[in-house]
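Slides due. Your pick:
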Amino acid sequence: MAPTDWTPDLIDERTEKLLGKQGPFRPTVRLVVADGRTSVAKDYRACTPLYRWTVGAWNLRRERAALERLAGLDGIPLIEARVGPWILVMTHFEGRDLGKTKKRNQTPAYFDELMALVLAMHARGVVHLDLRQRRNVLVRPGQHPAILDFGNALCVRPGSRLARYLARIDRSGVLKYKQRANPGALTAEEAQVLHKVERRRKLWPFS
C-alpha cells in the first residue's frame, strides 16, 4: 500500500490488535493489516491534547528524524507513512522481545549482531537511549536482532563528545542483556564499560 493510501479512518478499520499498554499519556500502538501487509502504527490521537501537542509532538519528530537517518539498516523499522499530524506507520517485524525470549535463544552470536547494529546506528549519529527496556529489543526468526521504538532517540553529531557519552548508555544495555543471558560472557573491556555506566546510573536520582 502506497503512503498516499493511508488515512486515519483506514488505520482504525484495519487495526488487528493493540500492542502494549495504552493511555492518555502514551501513544496507542496498533498492528494494522492492509492489502495483505502487516504494519505498526504509532498513534497519538487518543492522548490528552496537552500531552499530544508537547511531548507527543516532540517524540514524533525525534522518532521520524532517527528512522530517516537509519533507513536501510537491517533490523531498524522503515517509515511507511506519516498519516496526518499524529500517526507514524512503520515496518512490522516478526519475533519476540527479549523479555519473552528463552535464554537459550539469546546466544553470544545474537548479542554480537545486536551490538554491531547498535554501533552502525551510532555511526549514523543516532542514540536510542531506551535499550534497557526489553520490549524494545527483538529476537527475529533466525536469531537476528531488531530495535524498536525510537521515541526517545536523539540525533547527534557522530564522534562528538555527547555522542560518545550517550553511546555508552546504549552499549551498556546490550552488555547487561548479554551478561544476564550468558554469565561470564563479557570481555574485560565490556565488563569495564558496563561497570562504569552502572556506577553512574546509581548517582542519577530518576533511574
